[in-house]
Amino acid sequence: MQRSFWITLVVLLATAANSLAGKQDFTLVNKTGFDIHEVYVSPHSSDDWEEDVMGKGILADGQSIAVKFERTDKTKEWDLKVVDGNGKATVFEKLDLLQISKATLHFKDGKASADVE
Asked: How many whole angstroms separate alpha carbon 34 and alpha carbon 25?
């Protein structure tokens, strides 16, 4: 009986953790050819970039990170700003994060692009 209690508890905790995730969660993949030192995600309607979602980390070329949202976020269109080690920023606008689960960033011949899934 005790084993059954623990199994039920684990299932409930896992379900609760999944329900806290926002529908806008996505994976960001760096295929730019340079390391990304800062990542900002902000509603398109906002003039504020808020805080760096990477914290003190660096997203090396070829690596990816999971960007998570609180469940209460309901915004559809978001802007994404990435900053390289020299402080150069590149902005991707109006990403529909309700439809996107993965964004792969590229930078070639001075032009930035994003493949989305």
From this structure: 24
Q: Which domains does the chain have, with CATH numbers?
A: 22-116 (2.60.40.2890)
Strands 26-31 and 102-108 come out as parallel
Phi first, then psi: what are they for 44, rounded to 5°?
-60, -30
Q: Terminus-to-terminus CA distance in the chain, angstroms? A: 45
Each residue's pLDDT tens digit, 48-84: 998 999 888 999 999 999 998 876 777 889 999 999 9
Residue-wise burial string across 6-23, b where 16 or more C-beta atoms lie within 10 A, e elsewhere = eeeeeeeeeeeeeeeebe
Distance, in Å, from the CA atom of 114 to the CA atom of 117, rounded to the nearest integer, reads 10
